[in-house]
Amino acid sequence: MGGSSASPCDLDREFAPQIAQLIATPPLQAAQEYYDELIQSKKHDGIRVNFSSKHGKGVCANKDFAEGDLILKDQILVGSQHSLNKIDCAVCSYCFRFIGSIEFQIGRRLYWQSIGLSSDCTDRGHCHESDVGSSASSSGATKENSNTLPEEVLVSLITGDKSLPFTDHFSLPQVVPCCGCEEERYCSQSCADSDWETYHSLLCTGSKTESSRKSALQKFVEHANGSNDIFLVAAKVITFTLLRYKKLKIQSEFQKNTDESNFSLLMEAWKPISMGFKKRWWDSVALPEDVDSCDEDSFRQQIRDLAFTSLQLLKDAIFDPECAPLFSLEVYGHIIGMFELNNLGLVVASPIQDYFIHIDDLPDDKKEEAKKVTRPFLDALGEDYAVPCEGTAFFPLQSCMNHSCCPNAKAFKRDEDIDGHAVILALKPIRKDDEITISYIDEDVPYEERQAQLADYGFICACPRCQEEKPY
Ligand SMILES: C[S@@+](CC[C@H](N)C(=O)[O-])C[C@H]1O[C@@H](n2cnc3c(N)ncnc32)[C@H](O)[C@@H]1O
Fold this sequence. Notes:
CATH topology of one domain: Beta-clip-like
Distance between the termini: 32 Å
CATH superfamily of one domain: SET domain
Order of helices and strands: HHHEEEEHHHEEHHHHHHHEHHEEEEEHH
Pfam families: SET, zf-MYND
InterPro entries: ATXR2-like, SET_dom, SET_dom_sf, Znf_MYND
Shape: globular
Protein name: SET domain-containing protein
Strand order of the largest sheet: 1-2-12-9
GO biological process, one term: epigenetic regulation of gene expression
CATH architecture of one domain: Beta Complex
CATH class of one domain: Mainly Beta
Largest sheet: 4 strands, mixed
GO cellular component, one term: nucleus
Bound molecules: S-adenosylmethionine
């Protein structure tokens, strides 16, 4: 679609040349320098980022890897837990580690479940820890009680008054609340400070925030929660850039305050994001199966309108005239497109699973005793008793890895990987200079299905396996 109807956003016209620079693929040399520096600063000496005319960026091995070797632990640049997943998992909003205690995790999940809020419920406007114990406040309840545990038992798990056996083997970091709002919680003061400095000071809806911004932010969040929570992570990209811009501005105080010098600071602040592979969201998203191809234009127009509504709400809250091009629909669409196209799932396994496995593995006498206490909780949690933390994140190096249906590496969390870092392990021996590939999809399905899934990423796979299995 793109060009078939004019953008509803005035900024798209007013700042067209600046926007073109923001969304352009960075020059090869600048990109190479950026990745070389990043790899050096993070000491990922086993890899390098290469550029080819065929698939753009790709990651190559800088040394031999044996099967099972760790290739890379890639730190999130910008990420966010899915809104609905917040009901199931309490994690640090900065590093995505599980926090509190096993009792806290189990208690809050069963509590929300008991009052009808669960991750398959669509109204999640009221899930604050401060509501615990006052179920009348949860007007969003939509589900029958699915466990029979008394509310006071659940509340005492959350408050720490009740403990479960053997949880001391699974201690989690204490909850450090955001100094402003009830939404964000951390595993340490240092994560709280980093989040504040990097994104959250502009997105906090708490007491430190001026009331007009607060209500605008609340409207933005409500719209994202009711439509697509990818807007929340897109907003974080914008605040990440704005806050970097402000820091650079302070550092370069001696420079002239012209539009030109401000824009070059904005380009510098945007640099880590500029490296991500991007396309306009509404142009690149695959047409859902239930949308007829003759309705494609109107489908794409609807997505663009949805993004525009979200952007307007975000602008009401945090618009900064010095960084106006960043608030254009064109840039917003490319940021969202970056998350859609980069295979950027964030997953952290729940410690609840390890806890119940531990109970099951106890010697018989201890096991019986412990199970008498834990069984009702396990039964109430049901089949999905250990939902992992899930979200969307931009990993600067993992996002340079190309896809193969016969990959030589895999994103895989080991027992010790308890935060949001992406962990890439070798699936087979990899020789120095080989390209490192991962699979963006479930590769254990037939050729046609794989190609259909890869349509979401905007390419047709021609890896050795696909060439072999391609029907003539
Ligand atoms: C996560 S990025 C990978 C890095 C990308 N090559 C770049 O230049 O930034 C995903 C995009 O890379 C391209 N890509 C990845 N694997 C590919 C493959 N096997 N064949 C063709 N294009 C591929 C597609 O355009 C895809 O949407």
